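Folding problem:
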Amino acid sequence: MSVKIKKINIHAFRGIPDLELELDGKSLLLRGENGSGKSSIVEAIEFFFTGKVAHLEGVQGLSLRRHGPHVNFKPEDVNISITFNPGNIFLSRTFASAPSPPSPLEEYFQITRKGTFILRRSQILEFIMSQPAERFRAIGSIIGIEQLDNVELEMMRLRDELEGKVKSKKKEVERLIKELSDIVGKDITTIDDVISVLNAILRSAGLPLIKSLEDVDKHAEEMLKSVKKVEILDKIKVLNEILELTKNPLITKETVGELTSLNEKIRYLLRDEARVKLSVGDLLETGRKIIEQEKLDVCPLCEQKIERESLLARINTRLTTLRDLSNKASEIRRISVPVIDSLKRVSNNLGVLISKIEPFPELSKEKEILLGKLNSLNIFIEKVVSGKDLQNEIPVREIVQQKDEINQVISSIYKISNQLLKDIGLTEEEKRVLEIVRLIERARSKTKDISKTNIELMTNQKYLELAEKIYSAFSETKKTKIQEVYNIIQADIQSFYSMLHPNEPHRNIELMVAPGRRASTEMKIESFGREGEDPRALTSEGHLDSLGLCIFLAFVKKFNEGCPLVILDDVITTIDANHRNKVAELLLREFKDYQLIITTHDGIWYDQLLNFQRALNVQDDFINMEITWWDVNTGPMISPYKPRWEKILDKLKNNDRSGAGNECRMYLEWLLKEICEKMEVAVPFMRSGRYTVRELFDPAEKRIEDKLKDGDLKKDLLNKFKNLKATTFMGNLLSHDNPEIENLSIEEVKTFCNAVHDLHETFLCPQCRKFLKYFRDSKIVRCSDLRCESPKKEMTK
């Protein structure tokens, strides 16, 4: 059974103060006007999985921490939680903590962490309208090869960093096992040894034994029954957690020493001569190949005559030097990973500590200091990361100063927390029980950290093995392999595009790695018989948007296996109504096993998706909702979808003439478009595709009159057209001056609404409720569902 989202809870994020969405594993179709909070829901899901919001990244003046929280809340208030099935697994993300998925969700999260399950219209433009290099990166982000958008040095960087991560994780496992051994007072080699050691401690204390670490919470409750001060147990628990976090300095001398050693190596490579040599490595390699292969006697850059063999020898000497420098850069990348991981661990612990001391007014001063230190530390970490990439030296003096100041605050928190614990006044017996409970909880926490780190270690080892295998052949095979990927995907792109644009003069879509360029993707299409055209040359904006959608869906289907989540955030804007219908069918047929989250402000597109849900009998797989209101203080008000006819009846019941009349006018426009499509009605061509009642009514009525043989159905339909035309409201719609609705009585509006509904009902098969359709080959009008056992039908002329 595939992983599906059961419930989404959003608190204090973007335009949402509080919101709960019960999906129960179903797809969500959400309609709302622009600015009503649709995208805030999508951004919250994106933040949960990736820790980012794409359009807030890299834009001057915008930041997630500043602009992510709701305007009435602080960053520390933000909390996004999602419950998954199967297993009813609850995970959450804040600015201070990320979700830690269990193994059944690991593959799902590996994909969602990349954020490639979401499509916005801006991304469609990247696929189609951007330059080849930008298109290459946009597509590469979906198929997971963006790291391959580099020459050999870039691939080596990836390998080096993975090697550093493996060493870092091994070191971290060793550290955690040592800490676990210190906690239980006995050498531990594997986490399997923990239960027996803990039970030995419990046995000697005369306390009940545990069977597994999963029973720790329940076991702790049993032991704590002997503690009389039940009302302060939560306070004691938090204080113990604070003491655990602050018993040792967060930044050690060893970390400072490693940073100093790393910076000395960076300083050497940042000397002008070394930096220049590194930057021209690609140029030299390319030039050597060109001069060698083409047997040139002139320089390809300055066009001066050259001594070819002599120049090649000099280039080879310089490349040898560059390889030495490159090896030193590799060493920097490898040794920097554990240092950076160590600093990030300190940053994470600071964030956790700040949240722990929040409830204690006695520690408010320390909390404020730590907030500032956390910000400074994160800025310093960014400087270390850029130093690793040889962009700057590391300002080691900053961390030396921060080390002393942070550790001083940590020491103060430890003393105050210890005193707060003493002030509670527990008996010696209570202290003894609590100390053992604390020991077991600490041991459990360490074993979880060890298991998690081991998983990360194994993952990184697998990636490292893969990187090492492909590194040596990377330069020669990169383009070939990427093209092979494109070739595989092209069949799905073409298939999807043909479903949206059947019998149209656009075919043979090609994605090609641009020859002679390092990382560029060209797109070609055959249009109006012209082969190899850029899609932008001869296709409309709507065609381009649908092509971008097809590219996204094809890549998702191939490369997001293991993650059935797809989010389409208001992507249908320039596609006309007829093609939107086909997009709806494509999604509901080809992605019926996926959990779709589709947002839109477009009522026509929304109705088309609803219709196809019913037509394909998948309405039970969807939750259809509408945002009826949004306010900055309350956020979006979301209500279950209500069929249009029910809305009209509600408005009529409340004597809302204007609301009922306008709603029914839109109902009639939709109905006439359906009739014209299903009955193949000839209507005057409208480039915009936006037809009104005036343009559709008479051609639809005439088609029934001319095409159907005399019979009950024809008589009934023409009678319904006649009744509708006789209503006062209909006369207004067909006139040019269009008097105000307020001039009509509620009874006149009711007559109009009932006439529209009667016409709709007559066009539905009473057996299966599907729309009637004209079948040209068999010359019959009948229920569009060929599987209907008792279809409504009539012969045509």
Remarks:
- The first strand starts at residue 4 and ends at 13.
